[in-house]
Structures are given as C-alpha cells and as structure tokens.
Design a protein that fits this description.
With about 575 residues, this protein is α/β, with parallel strands linked by helices. The chain has a domain of about 160 residues: Jelly Rolls (Sandwich), CATH 2.60.120. Helices cover about 30% and strands about 25% of the residues. The strands form four sheets. The protein has an eight-stranded parallel β-barrel with strand order 11-12-13-14-17-18-20-21, surrounded by five helices. A five-stranded antiparallel sheet has the order 1-4-9-6-7. Strand 2 and strand 3 form a beta hairpin. The protein is globular, with a radius of gyration of 25 Å. The two termini are about 35 Å apart. The N terminus and C terminus are likely disordered. Bound molecules: (3S,4R)-3-hydroxy-2-oxopiperidin-4-yl beta-D-xylopyranoside. (3S,4R)-3-hydroxy-2-oxopiperidin-4-yl beta-D-xylopyranoside binds next to loops.
C-alpha cells in the first residue's frame, strides 16, 4: 500500500531530482539533537548495551566517555550492541549524525538508524574503522521512513577490548547542495550519451544513495540505467512473510524515473540474502512454490510497466561433485530443478512485456565448464518454450596481488559466448561488472584493469545481442569488494574521492569508436591500445536516434567520418532490430 506520507516523499524525491538546488536548500523545521545524553559526563542512561546470551560486555562511563568493555564477543557486528531507543525520525528529512569513537585495538564497527526488532530494518547503515586515537565521524543522510520510535545503534562485534564513544549528535539538517556535474570524459561525452547503441548501467546501494550527493550526480550524469544493489533482495523487501517493505525500492525507482533512467529488477529468486523465516521455516514443494509465486506476484506486479528487466533467477548453477549442475539451495532442494521454469513462467504471466534474465557469475567465457552448463540450461529452456529472453553475465573479475591475470576473462571467448546465445535467440547483458585489484594498487594493475574494462565493453558493443553494460557500483566509496574479498579493492570506475580512473577513460574510448561488426567507426580514439586515459580523444558524436546530446560543430573531415559512422550505426541498429525480433 502506498501511504500518503510515502506518496509525499516520492513527490519530494521527484522534485529534488528536477530542481536540485531549490530542493536541497530547504531548511529543516528545527535543528535540535534527538540525542538526550550524548556527552556522558556521569551516566550512560538512556543508552543501553545488548549482547546475545553467550557474549559479555559492560557499558559504563570511563573518563567522561561511554565505553563498552567486551570480554567475550561474537562473530557478527550485531552480536555486541550499544543503542538508544525512541528516536522520532521524519520521512524526507536529512539528519546529521556525528560522534567521536575509539578502540584500543583496530576494529571495524557499524552504526545504523532503524528497527530494533525483527526484521531489524536498517534505515541508514555505515561501516567505519576505529583506531586508538578518538576520531570524529560525520554523516548526513536522507531518512526515507517515518518512525516515532526508531533506534540508533553501534554494532561493535567480536574482538575483546574497549570501545568508547562521545559527543553523539543526531539532528535534522537541510539537505546538502548537489554540485552541477561535468563529465570527466576526454571525449566530452558521458557514458549515457551512447544509449542508442548500448545502455550503461550501475548498481546503487541505498545508504550511498541517501548520503552521497556527489555519487548521485555521477549516477545521473553518466548512466542511463541502474540496478538496486540490495533493496530488492528478499531479506529486505519481504523480511517478514507477506509483509513487503517497498520504501527503498520505491524511492530508487522514483529517482530513476525522474531522471529518465531505466531500472533493472534484481533478483526475484535467489538463495543468498534470503529472510530467516524462509531459510529456517518448513516448506514442502507446494508451499515453497506458493511462496515463490507470492514473491514474484508482489514485486513484478507492483512495478508492471515500470521495470523493463528482471533477474528472475540468480546463481542457480554450481559445482556439484565433479560437474556443474543445479546448486543445492532452499529453492532447488524444496521445489526441485523445475523451480527455474516455474519462476520464469510466473514472471512472464505477471508482466508480459518485461525482459526476463537468468543471471550468474563465471558464465561469461565459452569453454568454462560452468558457462557451458548454463548455456545448455538456457538452450534447453528455449527449446521447451520457457520464457527466457536474456542471460546476465555478472562479470566479477580480479587481478591477483602479484598482477597476474588468472582471474581475468579471455575477451575472444566472451565474444564467442555472446555469439552462441545470439544463435539461439537469447540476448545478453553484462550485469555486475567490476575488476578488483589484489593489493597493493599499482599503476600497472590499473592499466590492466582499464584494458579489461575496455575489452569486455568492446565485446558487448560489437555483439548484436548485447544491449546493456552494468558496472557493480560507481566508486570505491561504496564498494562491496573490500568487505567480501580480503586484500582486494579499487574495482570500480571512480576512486573514493570520485575521481575517474584509467578504466573510466578506457570505457569512454571504447564508446567513442562506435564500432559495428568489428569495424572501426567514428572518432580517432585510442581504443585497442589498452592505455585508457593516455591522452585526449577527438570524437565525432553520432546522430543515432535516441542520443541525448547536441552534436558539436564538426570539421569537413570528421563530417565524412560522421556519415560513415551513421551508416555503420544504422546497420548495427538494423541488426539489433532483427535479432530483437528474433528473440520475440
Ligand atoms: C552484493 C551487494 O553489492 C553487497 O552490498 C551485499 O552485501 C552482498 O551482495 N552477485 C549478485 C549481487 O547477484 O546481488 C551481489 O551484490 C554481488 C554478487
């Protein structure tokens, strides 16, 4: 149900997107801290400490600071918590959160606003690193939820030791002003300028979206599409059976629509980030099918006509013994392998116009055993008339610590893989691309990274059935990499200060060439050199329909190149049209 407060809030977001300066200079009604005791001169009250039974912490005032002394900690951040209850949070209001913190041993902690009880929804969540010297941490975030009794929590986790906090402030503030965005592209054209040929997308995680105006400026300045990184995962969107939490996805989708961007639904049926009620509950085949249908009906049904692509099933194939086959998951084990067919049929029924994807990793390279098994699966589905339109090649790659390429794809084999899907009438999207670097980061590794970004984008541009290229995150500021892969980082196009890396420039070089059928088209960019960012690229914009930029004045020579590129472009579009029709 869309409540009137969530409707107002969506309107607020649309206004913000359309009129950022006006919107972001609105002042808050009052700027008083919601925290009643944040300085801890004598007592910690009304703050409280919590541990699951087997863990032990004592929370007390030590030298005018609130300190947790952990004797026995757990494995998870949330095994040891310090919190404050009954914060009145207003939807659509920005809050500044400020505190100082230290720890006698180096450790990461998280802080959040959100629910204190299951499903423990996070309204805003950030992970930070503490050191022995007290540091002040500042965040401003846009609160999406109306809640008169929200909690603020520090999740301090496992390692025994002493963690101290002081000077805690949570106060309403005016929204930050979004600076106007200028693309760093040396061609003068942002990634989205080529959307008539290929749509460039990224993943957006809600905490970053809510707290980083500079990230959102790049999002709308560079990309023509995005995928929610987490908000549609089942543990978030259906944390309690039958209760759907649309707040984050509604806000992200409203933002996409206000900025004329496409939205990629991700994922409908996945075994990871599943809610506890589903993992721990007892469901026989029929009950599990009912759960799956209810989830698909609710998500696809709510957004019919607004979400053109859905990752219907995510990561269903894995190594089973010596071969690749159906992964043992809650879905497979309770329903059987036909859960995939059933999911696609149901999604098609609910939104007949949405394109339906099977999405997975390590399936990009032809000849890879998993890639070959997934091709077999998809081909079999097509043969039996199961409504599958596209395959999502996730594209998570890595450069080893010593700079080695064992974690990098062979671009020719990726091209061959795209081609065999074309032959069976199935489209391809690169859905989650990133190239993480084994530490330390060096200029050489960054050049290798740039080369891989460019090669795979080029493969997608050249393949008539590859329509989208989505990178899994814009910058290193909100990367999933460091917390998932120890000793890896710097996987994305922009660094933690939002500066474009060589990979970004390699990307724009590849786009500037506008090739068709492997032939070089317009522009004189350096694609193929593998040294993105080496120097300015002189490009001639195309005039393909759907391009969102005004062509710049051009010289006679480049005018001929433009004519040539346009013809090639038309040929490419024509081929795409044919293969789209073939997909049907
Ligand atoms: C990742 C998110 O980016 C992280 O924020 C989250 O903690 C874990 O999941 N394959 C997928 C994505 O299909 O949903 C995953 O996203 C990355 C791997």
């Amino acid at each position: 149900m869309v409540t009137s407060s969530s409707k107002n809030f969506i309107f607020h977001l649309i206004r913000c997107a359309a009129l950022p300066v006006v919107c972001f200079s609105v002042s808050p009604a009052s700027a008083q801290s919601l925290v009643t005791n944040g300085t801890f001169e004598e007592a910690i009250d009304p703050w409280w400490g919590y541990t699951a039974e087997e863990f032990i912490q004592t929370v007390d005032v030590l030298e005018g600071r609130m300190c947790s002394t952990i004797e026995v900690g757990g494995e998870n951040y949330w095994d040891v918590i310090i919190g404050l209850s009954d914060l009145a949070l207003v939807a659509g209001q920005n809050y500044r959160i400020s505190f100082s913190a230290s720890s006698d041993v180096d450790r990461s902690i998280r802080f959040k606003t959100g629910l204190g009880d299951a499903p423990y929804t996070d309204y805003f969540l950030r992970t930070i690193k503490l050191t022995a010297t007290p540091q002040t941490f500042e965040s401003t975030y846009l609160n999406l939820r109306e809640d008169a009794v929200a909690q603020f929590q520090f999740h301090i986790g496992g390692t025994p030791g002493v963690v101290c906090f002081d000077d805690i402030i949570i106060e309403p503030v005016a929204a930050p002003i979004v600076p106007p965005y200028t693309t760093p592209s040396l061609t003068g054209h942002a990634l989205k300028d080529y959307k008539a040929i290929i749509k460039m997308g990224t993943a957006v995680d809600t905490p970053t979206f809510l707290s980083q105006p500079a990230h959102n400026a790049i999002l709308t300045g560079e990309f023509s599409m995005f995928t929610p990184a987490n908000s549609m995962k089942m543990n978030i969107i259906q944390g309690t059976q039958g209760v759907f939490d649309w707040v984050e996805t509604d806000a992200l989708l409203a933002f996409a629509e206000a900025n004329a961007m496409e939205f990629h639904g991700h994922p409908l049926v996945w075994h990871t980030q599943a809610p506890a009620w589903l993992e721990d509950g007892e469901f026989d085949r029929d009950a599990m099918i009912a759960v799956m249908y209810a989830h698909i009906d609710a998500l696809v049904g709510r957004y019919v006509g607004r979400i053109p692509y859905w990752d219907v099933v995510n990561e269903a194939i894995d190594k089973v013994g010596e071969v690749y086959d159906f992964r043992s998951t809650i879905w497979h084990d309770r329903i059987g392998p036909d859960f995939i067919d059933l999911a696609f049929q149901r999604a098609r029924l609910v939104d007949p116009n949405a394109l339906l994807l099977y999405n997975d990793y390590n399936i990009e390279v032809m000849g890879n055993a998993k890639a070959d098994r997934v091709f077999e699966l998809v081909k079999d589905m097509k043969t039996r008339g199961i409504p599958i339109d596209q395959v999502g090649f996730q594209g998570h790659w890595y450069i080893t610590e010593d700079g080695g390429s064992s974690g990098l794809p062979d671009a020719a084999a990726v091209r061959a893989n795209m081609a065999r899907y074309e032959e069976i009438g199935v489209g391809v999207q690169i859905t989650e691309f990133d190239v993480r670097i084994g530490l330390p980061i060096t200029p050489e590794k960054q050049q290798t990274q740039a080369r891989v970004y460019q090669e795979i984008l080029q493969a997608c541009i050249d393949a008539p059935n590859c329509s989208h290229f989505t990178v899994w995150g814009i910058s290193d500021i909100d990367s999933w990499v460091p917390s998932t892969f120890e000793n890896f980082d710097s996987a994305h196009l922009f660094d933690a200060s939002f500066v474009a890396k060589p990979a970004y420039h390699a990307f724009t070089n590849a786009l500037a060439l506008l090739p068709a059928d492997g032939t070089v088209g317009a522009g004189t960019g350096g694609a193929g050199s593998g040294t993105g960012g080496a120097g300015p690229v002189v490009t001639t914009p195309t005039t393909k329909s759907g391009c969102s930029y005004e062509p710049r004045p051009i010289s006679a020579a480049s005018g001929w190149r433009l004519v040539f590129a346009s013809l090639l472009g038309l040929a490419l579009l024509f081929r795409r049209g044919l293969s789209a029709r073939a997909r049907g």
